[in-house]
């Protein structure tokens, strides 16, 4: 089956017309307000500045404080990825427990910080942009990771 040149031209023009609107619907690391909106699906959250001047979200998840660091930024904006982080002060489960978590769980990596407190993190690549639905699903996944980690390390609220 041959495709006529006029049909190909029509398909090409349609792609040009649709292309920009599709690209605009993608959320990138420059869209701090839209990312903050997704964070607020979990509870209260505020956009602030991280230690290196990059944007950062500080949020509350069922009474637990977490942070979302914007990373690999150009001039403290247009960031390439997000790093979700929760630390649990005075919760020292030991290296065997942390290693077990990392062996058994697919999402979220755990470690002991410099004071041997438990921490859990998760990353999200935004270089090509993501849909609003996908971003919200990643925040929902983060909620699950934190909830499971709290139980795993027996964190007492």
Account of the protein in words:
This protein has a single domain (27-152), classed as Yope Regulator, Chain: A (2-Layer Sandwich). The chain is built from four helices and six strands, in the order H-H-E-E-E-E-H-E-E-H. The model is unreliable at 1-23 (pLDDT under 50). Helix 2 crosses helix 4 (132-152). The relative contact order is 0.16. It is globular and about 40 Å long. It is of the alpha+beta class and 157 residues long. It has a six-stranded antiparallel beta sheet with strand order 1-2-3-4-6-5.
SSE blueprint and pairings:
Elements: H1 5-25, H2 32-39, E1 45-49, E2 55-61, E3 64-71, E4 81-88, H3 95-104, E5 109-112, E6 118-125, H4 132-152
Antiparallel strand pairs: 1-2, 2-3, 3-4, 4-6, 5-6
Helix pairs in contact: 2-4
């Amino acid at each position: 089956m041959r495709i006529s040149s006029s049909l190909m031209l029509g398909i090409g023009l349609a792609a040009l017309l649709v292309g920009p609107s599709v690209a605009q619907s993608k959320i990138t690391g420059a869209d701090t307000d839209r990312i903050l909106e997704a964070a607020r699906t979990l509870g209260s959250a505020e956009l602030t500045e991280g230690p290196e001047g990059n944007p950062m979200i500080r949020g509350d998840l069922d009474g637990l404080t977490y942070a979302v660091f914007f990373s690999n930024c150009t001039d403290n904006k247009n960031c390439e990825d997000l790093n979700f982080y929760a630390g649990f002060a005075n919760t020292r489960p030991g290296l065997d427990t942390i290693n077990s978590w990392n062996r058994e769980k697919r999402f979220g990596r755990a470690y002991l910080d410099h004071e041997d407190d438990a921490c859990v993190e998760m990353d999200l690549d935004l270089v090509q942009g993501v849909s609003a639905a996908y971003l919200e699903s990643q925040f929902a996944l983060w909620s699950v990771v934190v909830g499971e980690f709290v139980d795993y390390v027996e964190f007492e609220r």
